[in-house]
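Encode chain A's predicted structure.
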Amino acid sequence: NFKAGKGVNTTPVEQQRLPKWKKELWTLAKKLITLIDPDFAAGEYVVNYACMNQPDQYVKKHTDSEDISYQYALNLGDYKGAYTRCFDENENVLGEFDYHRRICKMDGRLPHEVIQTDFEGVRYTLVWFKVYDHRKTEPDPVFRHPGFV
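Encoded structure for chain A:
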Protein backbone atom coordinates (compact mmCIF):
# COMPACT_ATOMS: atom_id res chain seq x y z
CA ASN A 1 0.00 0.00 0.00
CA PHE A 2 1.58 3.23 -1.14
CA LYS A 3 0.53 5.29 1.91
CA ALA A 4 1.66 2.80 4.54
CA GLY A 5 3.72 4.50 7.22
CA LYS A 6 2.11 7.92 6.73
CA GLY A 7 0.66 7.95 10.25
CA VAL A 8 -2.73 6.65 9.18
CA ASN A 9 -4.75 5.23 12.07
CA THR A 10 -6.86 2.36 10.74
CA THR A 11 -8.44 1.52 14.10
CA PRO A 12 -12.23 1.78 13.65
CA VAL A 13 -13.58 4.99 15.18
CA GLU A 14 -16.02 2.96 17.26
CA GLN A 15 -13.03 1.34 19.03
CA GLN A 16 -11.11 4.58 19.65
CA ARG A 17 -11.21 6.58 22.87
CA LEU A 18 -13.14 9.64 21.71
CA PRO A 19 -15.82 11.84 23.26
CA LYS A 20 -19.37 10.63 22.68
CA TRP A 21 -20.24 13.60 20.46
CA LYS A 22 -17.34 12.83 18.10
CA LYS A 23 -18.42 9.21 17.74
CA GLU A 24 -22.01 10.29 17.11
CA LEU A 25 -20.93 12.83 14.49
CA TRP A 26 -18.68 10.21 12.88
CA THR A 27 -21.61 7.75 12.75
CA LEU A 28 -23.84 10.30 11.01
CA ALA A 29 -21.05 11.29 8.58
CA LYS A 30 -20.44 7.61 7.79
CA LYS A 31 -24.14 7.01 7.06
CA LEU A 32 -24.25 10.04 4.77
CA ILE A 33 -21.13 9.18 2.73
CA THR A 34 -22.34 5.58 2.41
CA LEU A 35 -25.56 6.86 0.80
CA ILE A 36 -23.69 9.24 -1.52
CA ASP A 37 -20.80 7.02 -2.64
CA PRO A 38 -20.80 3.43 -1.31
CA ASP A 39 -17.48 2.62 -3.00
CA PHE A 40 -15.73 5.62 -1.43
CA ALA A 41 -17.20 4.65 1.96
CA ALA A 42 -16.05 1.02 1.62
CA GLY A 43 -12.40 2.03 1.97
CA GLU A 44 -10.62 4.10 4.60
CA TYR A 45 -11.28 7.84 4.69
CA VAL A 46 -10.98 10.81 7.01
CA VAL A 47 -13.71 13.24 8.01
CA ASN A 48 -12.55 16.74 8.88
CA TYR A 49 -14.88 18.95 10.89
CA ALA A 50 -14.45 22.74 10.95
CA CYS A 51 -16.30 25.83 12.15
CA MET A 52 -16.12 29.35 10.69
CA ASN A 53 -17.73 32.01 12.88
CA GLN A 54 -15.65 35.18 12.47
CA PRO A 55 -15.61 37.62 9.54
CA ASP A 56 -11.80 37.45 9.28
CA GLN A 57 -11.62 33.65 8.91
CA TYR A 58 -10.78 32.09 5.56
CA VAL A 59 -8.82 29.22 4.07
CA LYS A 60 -5.97 30.37 1.82
CA LYS A 61 -5.44 28.80 -1.58
CA HIS A 62 -3.78 25.41 -1.17
CA THR A 63 -3.67 21.84 -2.36
CA ASP A 64 -4.15 18.73 -0.27
CA SER A 65 -1.01 17.01 -1.51
CA GLU A 66 -1.38 13.91 0.67
CA ASP A 67 -4.83 13.06 -0.77
CA ILE A 68 -5.09 10.00 -2.99
CA SER A 69 -8.57 10.63 -4.37
CA TYR A 70 -11.34 13.22 -4.73
CA GLN A 71 -13.22 14.49 -1.70
CA TYR A 72 -16.73 15.42 -0.64
CA ALA A 73 -17.73 18.50 1.37
CA LEU A 74 -20.88 19.70 3.13
CA ASN A 75 -21.60 22.98 4.91
CA LEU A 76 -24.21 23.34 7.64
CA GLY A 77 -25.25 26.16 9.95
CA ASP A 78 -26.85 29.56 9.60
CA TYR A 79 -24.48 31.74 7.56
CA LYS A 80 -24.05 33.76 4.41
CA GLY A 81 -21.11 35.10 2.47
CA ALA A 82 -18.68 32.15 2.28
CA TYR A 83 -17.87 29.86 -0.63
CA THR A 84 -15.14 27.63 -2.01
CA ARG A 85 -13.31 28.53 -5.22
CA CYS A 86 -11.75 25.63 -7.14
CA PHE A 87 -8.94 25.91 -9.69
CA ASP A 88 -7.33 23.64 -12.26
CA GLU A 89 -3.61 22.90 -12.53
CA ASN A 90 -3.10 26.14 -14.51
CA GLU A 91 -4.84 28.33 -11.91
CA ASN A 92 -7.98 28.73 -14.06
CA VAL A 93 -11.14 28.98 -11.94
CA LEU A 94 -13.24 25.82 -12.31
CA GLY A 95 -16.08 27.20 -10.22
CA GLU A 96 -17.23 28.77 -7.00
CA PHE A 97 -19.36 26.63 -4.71
CA ASP A 98 -21.50 27.31 -1.67
CA TYR A 99 -22.35 23.80 -0.56
CA HIS A 100 -24.72 24.85 2.19
CA ARG A 101 -26.85 21.77 2.87
CA ARG A 102 -25.52 20.23 -0.37
CA ILE A 103 -22.70 17.82 -1.08
CA CYS A 104 -19.90 19.05 -3.33
CA LYS A 105 -17.51 16.60 -4.99
CA MET A 106 -14.13 18.10 -5.77
CA ASP A 107 -10.47 17.16 -5.82
CA GLY A 108 -8.34 18.69 -3.08
CA ARG A 109 -5.19 17.86 -5.05
CA LEU A 110 -6.13 20.82 -7.24
CA PRO A 111 -5.84 24.34 -5.78
CA HIS A 112 -8.84 25.59 -3.80
CA GLU A 113 -9.64 28.27 -1.22
CA VAL A 114 -12.49 29.48 0.97
CA ILE A 115 -13.51 33.07 0.26
CA GLN A 116 -15.65 35.38 2.37
CA THR A 117 -17.80 38.25 1.17
CA ASP A 118 -19.55 40.04 4.05
CA PHE A 119 -19.61 36.80 6.02
CA GLU A 120 -22.17 36.49 8.80
CA GLY A 121 -23.20 33.58 11.01
CA VAL A 122 -21.72 30.20 11.80
CA ARG A 123 -20.56 27.80 9.07
CA TYR A 124 -19.87 24.18 9.95
CA THR A 125 -17.98 22.13 7.36
CA LEU A 126 -17.51 18.39 6.96
CA VAL A 127 -14.96 17.15 4.41
CA TRP A 128 -14.52 13.45 3.57
CA PHE A 129 -11.13 12.70 2.01
CA LYS A 130 -8.65 9.87 1.56
CA VAL A 131 -4.96 9.72 2.39
CA TYR A 132 -5.03 5.93 2.53
CA ASP A 133 -7.24 3.13 1.21
CA HIS A 134 -6.11 -0.47 1.60
CA ARG A 135 -7.71 -1.33 -1.76
CA LYS A 136 -5.56 1.10 -3.77
CA THR A 137 -2.06 0.63 -5.11
CA GLU A 138 -1.92 4.09 -6.73
CA PRO A 139 -3.86 7.35 -6.43
CA ASP A 140 -7.11 7.83 -8.32
CA PRO A 141 -7.00 10.06 -11.40
CA VAL A 142 -7.53 13.73 -10.56
CA PHE A 143 -11.22 14.69 -10.63
CA ARG A 144 -11.39 17.90 -12.70
CA HIS A 145 -15.14 18.60 -12.65
CA PRO A 146 -16.18 19.87 -9.21
CA GLY A 147 -19.91 20.10 -8.63
CA PHE A 148 -22.86 19.02 -6.57
CA VAL A 149 -23.98 15.42 -6.17
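The first helix runs from residue 20 to 36.
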